[in-house]
Structures are given as C-alpha cells and as structure tokens.
Design brief:
The chain is mainly alpha-helical and 70 residues long. The protein has one domain: lambda repressor-like DNA-binding domains (434 Repressor (Amino-terminal Domain), Orthogonal Bundle). It has a two-stranded antiparallel ribbon with strand order 1-2.
C-alpha cells in the first residue's frame, strides 16, 4: 500500500495544513481527503503542485507501507 506523506512533510517544514490548503486550488473536502489518505486517486496535476509548493520531488510525497494482507 502507498500513502502520501504530506502531513509529515508539513510538520518537518513547520507549515500547517491550512497553509498548504490556501496554496492549492482545491475544495477543502477534496484537499482534506487527499492529505489524510482517504482517496483512491490523485490527479497528476495535484501531485505536481504539491511537490512544487513543498519543494520536494513527487517521489518524496509517497511512502510504501505494508498492507494488512502481507
């Protein structure tokens, strides 16, 4: 299973989730689902925007975690 590390990256950079939300062009509902890993798909455009705002590569946004079936 793969999950986004956005909240951890924000904490490392001393930014808030609200700060990032104001930078993104998304509804709060969609934004919150994305950063809390409650969505099944993310647009490439949003990944590109996240990596630009956070100053990291797209790969840094993700973390592979063991699934419950492994």
């Amino acid at each position: 299973m793969v999950r986004l590390r956005v909240l951890e990256i924000l904490q490392e950079q001393n930014h808030t989730k609200y700060w990032l939300f104001k930078q993104m062009d998304l509804s709060y509902q969609n934004f919150n689902r994305m950063v809390t890993n409650q969505t099944h798909s993310i647009r490439f455009e949003n990944l590109d925007t996240l990596s630009t705002i956070l100053g990291c590569s797209v790969g840094d946004l993700f973390e592979k975690i063991p699934s419950s079936t492994e």
